[in-house]
Amino acid sequence: MINKKIRFIQFYTFLILSLLSLSSCHQNPFDIDVEELEIDVIRFDKELVTTSPDSLDEKVMIWDKKYPIFFTMYTRGVLQVGGVGDRGFVPFLTKFVTNNITQETYKDILKKYASFNDDKKKIEKAFSYYHHYFPKREIPKVFTVISGFNQSIAMDSMVLAIALDKYLGEKDNFYERLAIPMYLRKKFRRELIPVDCMRAIAWGEFPFVGEDNMANNMIYEGKVQYFLEAVLPFVDDSLKMGYTEKQMKWSYKNEKNIWTAIIEGEMLYQTKPIQIKNMTKEAPFSQPFGNHSPPQLGVWIGWQIVRSYMENNPQVTLKELMENDDYTAILNSSSYQP
After folding, report:
1. Residue where a domain stops, chosen among 130, 164, 189
2. How many domains, the chain?
3. Which of 44, 124, 159, 244 is the most exposed place for a label (fewest CB within 10 A)?
């Protein structure tokens, strides 16, 4: 009887240790404790649309003084209606604010974003990780805006604007009325806001430098994906790629075949813009691999190469990786072999 109890205890202990070992193998190395930051998110979409048209002349001057960098970026870059001092600026801005589409869109925004608190917490968490890895870089001021269905995220200097009308959900009626393709609509989801914010940070703080060929674009975008992995450890990898779970599984299953096709098809150092676009930019699928494939497979493979590089060069920090523009050296030192 005693021997049975001993064997049971030994088996139970072995089982617990095995489970703990398995758990540690799959633990996200980026899921670490970091100092939590608090940021202000300014709901400029509300400030703008709820302002009386008769008050816009006065408000424009206030906004220009209060938010100088943001307001110029927003009116010139996002809305493209000019800026303070330009002839006809206030009438153009008034026309945007008062038109039916803007008013209807704002009502839709209010339904879905009556509160931005949960989104704010996720953005704060992402910036907390960002600050951990890049403590000397400033955290941008964050604004929410209505963009007229233009760019999703706008960034200039230390200002970041989130266009809430681009995150109303893929089934939103406005996107259908505007005939926006479904492959683009699938990325107009609320849960992608922190991902798109941090991708904008990566693109803005660490821009592409070098010869515009396939390999360099793949490695550069792979670095961006690795950056997202580090600052968004609480976000699923599929969201970081804008993939469905099915597309993610397809990519892993076919990783070796994709890489073989890139090498044998002599795509790696291709310089034709259309070829690079077919593998790295948003699309319904990756053109060289047919309409059953996920889009941006060049970015996905680039991510796996950078992962391999960091695994094989553990002395390299995230900061050093992001500041390294020698894409060929990263590829050669990755020992990538799917």
Report:
1. 189
2. 2
3. 244
Helix (H) or strand (E) holding 153: strand 153-156
User: Is 27 inside any structural domain?
Assistant: no
51 and 171 inside one domain? yes
pTM: 0.90
Give me the residues paired with residue 161 across strands: 143, 154
Full domain range(s) for residue 133:
41-189
Question: Residue 23 falls within a domain, yes or no?
Answer: no
Query: Does residue 178 sit in the same domain as residue 229?
Result: no
pLDDT at site 203:
96
pLDDT tens-place string over residues 109-154? 999 999 999 999 999 999 999 999 999 999 999 999 999 999 999 9
Residue 320 has pLDDT above 90, yes or no: yes
Contact 218, 298 (CB under 8 A): yes
Average of per-residue pLDDT across 58-83: 96
Residue partners of 201: CB distance under 8 A and separation at least 6: 130, 140, 155, 160
DSSP labels, 61-109: HHHHHHSHHHHHIIIIIIS-S--TTSTTHHHHHHHHHHSHHHHHHHHHH
Please state, in angstroms and rounded to a whole number, the distance separating the CA atoms of residues 130 and 195. 12
Residue 235 near residue 195, CB atoms below 8 Å: yes
Q: Is 162 found in the same domain as 116?
A: yes
Q: Is residue 3 part of a domain?
A: no
Phi/psi of residue 73, nearest 5 degrees: -60, -45
Q: How far is 140 from 142, CA to CA, in rounded Å?
A: 6
